[in-house]
Design the sequence.
């Protein structure tokens, strides 16, 4: 393949495409959440699609009803790209979370800089906004990022929770920041967690 | 699981969530495009994520530079959901494309109507807009939907093309509508296809 010849004629598109083809690897980064109809775990690309559509459809439940939904969706589409280098870190695994931030910053620097400089800056700013949880859009995006695995676990009868011996107290503790983005979705999720305990597939 | 109890307390969220959990099945609808780093084909959820991010990053190349990118991204996120019932139809398979429209309309009616009525109407309108290719946003979204498998095929040395004996004349013929959404991305893609022929992994 002589992509160099193509790149000579279309330098900017070729650079954008190099980034877009590099991030194809997100389809191979496996998370701990189950797929409902298959006996496998979901990957980051699937998660990002599902989350983006949740943002569109659940917008009315954001704490700020005028939340910038395009900004939230953009953040969601790129929020896990750093895991191509840094790997997925299970939210309940305290030890694995040590050094996570440093690994992810290095990943952001390598991967985002495959883009033309102006877009590298733009995507880095989006990722920083998501990580810092200071804007309504990033708080909503983060709330959904917590809600999504909770729902897949609940709807699958606790498959991901059971595999790791997770208890309801951990679920409540590790996901309560959801309230910053959507109090009502947190109430809804809490109701599901209590039901999971009552039904016996999540230990108290 | 007594989701009915949860649904009684949060009827609207529960209805939205029933739709969101139903479309988890999109992760199991397999396309003909290869994943670059793995010996498997991509699924519709992965494709939809990749395409949505392409829309964000390649917006400047749309025929209408002021294209409504949120509208394009929303269309992209939902454009393949009908394939949960109707299946993926390979673009080069003429026979399989017979009856596709009817199958997909039935699917849209079943799946979108899992949502609350106001949102079912909204998502159906988005899907119709995508299918009709009459607005700048839908033309751009459709152009990317053609570009994406072309790039995965090109970057993988023609894996998907080879598996189905596709020739370059078919690639040009079946994808030329890309021009309606982005002439420059069509020129770029054509350059890649000509390179694939020159390199010997796509028959003339």
Sequence:
């Amino acid at each position: 393949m002589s992509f160099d010849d193509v790149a000579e004629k279309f330098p900017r598109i070729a650079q954008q495409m190099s980034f877009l083809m590099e991030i194809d690897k997100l389809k191979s980064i496996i998370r701990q959440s189950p797929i409902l109809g298959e006996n496998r775990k979901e990957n980051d690309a699937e998660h990002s699609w599902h989350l983006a559509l949740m943002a569109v459809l659940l917008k009315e439940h954001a704490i700020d009803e005028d939340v910038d939904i395009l900004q939230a969706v953009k953040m969601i589409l790129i929020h896990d790209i750093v895991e191509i280098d840094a790997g997925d870190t299970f939210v309940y695994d305290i030890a694995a979370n040590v050094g996570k931030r440093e690994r992810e910053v290095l990943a952001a620097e390598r991967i985002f800089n495959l883009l033309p400089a102006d877009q590298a800056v733009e995507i880095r700013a989006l990722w920083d906004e998501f990580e810092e949880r200071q804007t309504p859009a990033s708080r909503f995006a983060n709330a959904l990022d917590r809600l999504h695995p909770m729902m897949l676990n609940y709807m699958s009868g606790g498959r991901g929770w059971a595999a790791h011996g997770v208890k309801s107290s951990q679920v409540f503790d590790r996901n309560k920041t959801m309230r910053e983005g959507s109090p009502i979705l947190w109430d809804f999720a809490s109701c599901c967690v209590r039901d999971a305990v009552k039904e016996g597939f999540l230990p108290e």
